[in-house]
Design goal:
eight-stranded antiparallel β-sheet; 3 domains; 331 residues; globular; Uridine Diphospho-n-acetylenolpyruvylglucosamine Reductase, domain 3; single chain; alpha+beta
Length: 331
């Protein structure tokens, strides 16, 4: 079993450190350093308080185990990674990739209340607190979300839970997804592939049925799969330009995409590297960016990231020697 002391000693003495979870996001962003010392966070549920809607787990805990633990209390913590059986809580937070229900529940960083992590110098630092009312000052937990292990090795987190919805249903319609968005009140997801609009509604059964009827949704369906292929990426743009970006993507040969309407995320997949590069051009042309999720040999993981200079200064403050996951972020 991995211990906190072992992680501290390893990180403090290594020239390069690679935090490892379930490797489900191994290709996200820049490549992991090949000569780094791998460290694995502790796993397991440390505390669960259903009354306070909080759970504390080791960062090496799989999302599936997290879901099972809070599910016994009639609750959930919607991290929604691609592969919950393998993805760890720490890895999901470190990559910062929000799940398909972001439209209703917000980005994955909103789930994090408290985090404990090991710095490049081998110190254990705590940020945040188990309840929102007890937290003041700089929001360190959110800083770690999406950092890809370049600020610290996440070892333990406290997450915000919520009651499980009594009814969850996907609906299919060929109506315009942006018009559907205007008709609905807090849908969990509106996914659009250019042909079919997939709508996820959650809540009390009567509310779900009434909302589906009011929006004139079609028949019930299943969860829409994200596009698959050897080369995958995630486009991030302003929600208002998703239609424009989708039109550009349709001109790329072999491009498969699924947009999250109201969020500004478009998942893309191609069979060749040129298609991924073309998707990046479409994203930057619309004022956004594309992060590589898989494949893309020779393609930069980010090309550019928002607030680069600020992030570089934060990285330098926490890890001046740049020993934590060097190369994963362009900093």
């Amino acid at each position: 079993m991995t211990t906190l002391d072992a992680i501290r000693e390893t990180v403090a003495g290594a020239d390069a450190v690679v935090p490892v979870g379930g490797r489900t996001h191994w290709e996200v962003g820049g490549p992991a350093p090949v000569d780094g010392v791998e460290v694995v966070a502790p796993s397991g549920v440390l505390a669960y308080d259903p009354a306070e809607l909080t759970i504390t787990v080791g960062a090496g805990t799989t999302v599936a185990d997290l879901d099972a633990a809070v599910g016994e209390g009639g609750q959930e913590c919607p991290l929604d990674p691609r592969d919950p059986e393998r993805a760890t809580v720490g890895g999901t937070l470190a990559t910062g990739l929000s799940g398909r229900r972001r439209l209703r529940y917000g980005p994955v960083r909103d789930r994090v209340l408290e985090v404990r992590f090991v710095t490049a110098a081998g110190r254990v630092v705590k940020g945040g607190g188990p309840t929102v009312k007890n937290v003041t000052g700089y929001d360190v937990p959110r800083l770690l979300v999406g950092s890809l292990g370049t600020i610290g090795v996440i070892t333990q987190v406290t997450l915000r839970c919520q009651p499980l919805a009594q009814r969850t249903a996907w609906y299919l319609t060929d109506a315009d997804p942006f018009e559907i968005r205007r008709r609905l009140f807090r849908p969990s997801c509106i996914a659009w592939d250019g042909t079919t609009t997939h709508v996820l509604l959650e809540g009390h059964p009567d509310d779900v049925a009434a909302e589906a009827q009011a929006a004139d949704l079609g028949e019930e369906g299943s969860t829409p799969p994200r596009p698959e292929g050897p080369h995958r990426g995630r486009v991030s743009v302003r929600p208002g330009v998703v239609h424009e970006v989708a039109s550009e993507l349709d001109t790329i040969d072999g491009m498969r995409w699924l947009a999250e309407v109201g969020v500004g995320t478009v998942h893309v997949a191609t069979d060749d590297v040129d298609g991924l590069l073309a998707a990046r051009d479409a994203a930057t042309g619309a004022g956004g960016w594309l992060m590589r999720e898989a494949g893309g040999n020779g393609v930069d993981g980010f090309a550019a990231i928002p607030n680069h200079d600020l992030m570089a200064r934060i990285r330098a403050a926490f890890d001046p020697e740049r020993k934590l996951n060097p190369g994963r972020l362009p900093l």
